[in-house]
Structures are given as structure tokens and as C-alpha cells.
């Protein structure tokens, strides 16, 4: 059994800053409420507008993600999850306990993890907000914990990536486990993308950065007009990342580090229109970084954005595609980034070459 749980929730203790949720109407999730991972249409805790929901999402036959997703679009795009490396099994529950802790229990009632560790007093209630932020609040309405402080692979408008925080790409498009790339706002103030030491999330090779180094206290902000930028603690904008003003009232927005290692800004029309899908913002300015990941990642050892022995090319859609050179084929057809292997055993010691497969 894979017990590689993300144990580092200690930082929640440091984040008990009062955060104003005034003026935001929401339905409370009261103490004692719970949701169960079952088959069929699952109940969820939705935001007042219904645009976001918190609950379980089934991932094929593998189990359930405790997640937040865009709830009004057919794609049900996931923007946050609590247990991407350790899916919950059928019958698991998430509960806001009587003492105000948010916990994930397996079918037998054994605690899989504290989703949010709140220390002593616990929350008075929870709420799924219309911004896509799930919050646990104290008696006075102060925010004790918020999903926005524990991002997975996606940022939403009004969300801030704080110094030291990171986004980890999913493993594949439909496999939400920690993947091979990450975006981190380093303590030195620089926003950097790295390949990771998969299956660990430690940084290996930096392939893009803003070069901002104003010092500690920088933040990555996704503001309400759809701009994404690094800002110094003084409030000075240091580096724009995306500058695509797209009206928030007409489009859903997100900025996601995808499984291919590219950080992209996406929009999705809210109004009824044909051919609705997540698209990159239709502007002339940048809506993904790095501009060419194939060029950005090239180790001396010949392993790049597509893995060992492979070839990486940006397609017309500006997305990297992986290929194997002549005489090589993918190790795993379903996972091209594992790289390519030779089709033939190399000829040595005078043995005739032999078909490998
Ligand atoms: C949510 O719960 C808190 C604490 O019990 C209460 O003060 C607040 O009025 C409630 N809000 C709503 C919208 O029910
Ligand atoms: C996702 O990929 C990882 C790595 O190959 C694998 O261990 C895991 O089982 C996959 N998860 C699902 C749900 O297929
Ligand atoms: C978002 O940032 C841009 C660029 O700094 C600025 O022009 C715009 O006014 C900001 N929007 C909001 C709502 O703060």
C-alpha cells in the first residue's frame, strides 16, 4: 500500500491570519456534516453560485479524490485536491467533526488524514466560496484554514501563491498524482519551474524563472482582472507572468501547471455557446510559460522534456509532443514521458542482432 501521504501540514499553524470574508454571502457547512464516497451522483458542498463544489470525485476504478472543481461545466475540472497520491476508497468519508476538524476517514472509520490541521480550538463552520476557496472559519468569522493556501496544480483569480509555496503538475492528464514538474515561489523571491526527482517532488533542473530576487516576501498574485504577476512585499509589481485581461464575469479562469510541465492560463466561456472548452486566453500576449519547453529542458545526458532518448517538438497548438527517433519506441505507450528504448539489442561480441520485442 502506498503511504506516501503529504505530511507537511504544520504550516497551517503559521497561516492563522485573519482573512476577511466579509461581504461574501455563503452557505455554512455546519459541524458534524459529512460526505461519503459512493457510486452514482455524489453529494457535494457547493458555493452559493453553484460554480464551485467540494467533495469526492471518482478517478476511474482507482478510487476517489477529495477535491474542489468547476461545478457548472461538463468537464468538472478539478482545481484542488487533498489526496492526489493516496486516493480514498469507496465508503470513505470527509467530515467536519463536532470539534471543528476537517478529516478524511476510510470506510472503517480510521482517519486517513487530517485534511486541515487547526490545532486546539477547531473551526466553527466551513464554507465553499464562489472564488473556489474552501474555508474553515472560527467563531468570529476569522479564517483558520483555506484551500487557497494549499494549492495543488492550479491557481484561481484572487488566489495568492506565497513565498515558499508551490504547484506540482499532475502525472498525466487524467492521473492526478504528483508529476514530474513544479512551479515554486522560492524564499529568495524568484518564481522558478523545475523538473522533479519523480516520484519525489524535490527540485532537479530549473527550466524557467522570472529572475525576480527582490528578496523574501514576494507573492505570485492572480488578480481579479486575470493578470498573474510577482509582487514584492512593498506592493511593487516585479514580473508580469500573464497579462491577459479577460472579463471575470464572462469567463471562468484558471492557471495550471499541466502534466507536460507548461504553466498555462486558461479561460472558459460562462455563457451558452457552441464548442465550449478550456482554451488559452485569446490575446497576443503570453498565456503559457516557458515559450518552448522542448528548448528549455535539455540535459547534457540527452533527457529532455520528453524523457530519455526521445525527441520533443512544439506542435501547431504550441503544445510539446514526444517522439522516438528511428529504431526506438516508447517504453510505455500510455506514458510517453518515460522516454524511448532501442528496438534492437545492440550488436556486440559478434552476436547477430536480435529483435527485442
Ligand atoms: C455561519 O456560522 C457562523 C457561526 O455559527 C454564523 O455567525 C454565521 O452567521 C453563519 N453564516 C451563515 C450565512 O449562515
Ligand atoms: C498514476 O501514475 C502513477 C505513476 O505511474 C501510478 O503509480 C498510479 O497508480 C497512477 N494512478 C492512477 C489513478 O492510475
Ligand atoms: C490587476 O493587475 C493589473 C496589472 O497590474 C491592473 O492593471 C489591474 O487593475 C488589476 N486588477 C485588479 C482588479 O486589481
From TrEMBL:
CDD domains: B_lectin. GO terms for molecular function: kinase activity. InterPro entries: Bulb-type_lectin_dom, Bulb-type_lectin_dom_sf, G-type_lectin_kinases/EP1-like. Gene3D superfamilies: Bulb-type lectin domain. The keyword Transmembrane does not apply. SMART domains: B_lectin. Residues 20-149 form the Bulb-type lectin domain. Residues 1-23 form the signal peptide. Pfam families: B_lectin. Keywords: Disulfide bond, Glycoprotein, Kinase, Signal, Transferase. This is G-TYPE LECTIN S-RECEPTOR-LIKE SERINE/THREONINE-PROTEIN KINASE SD2-5.
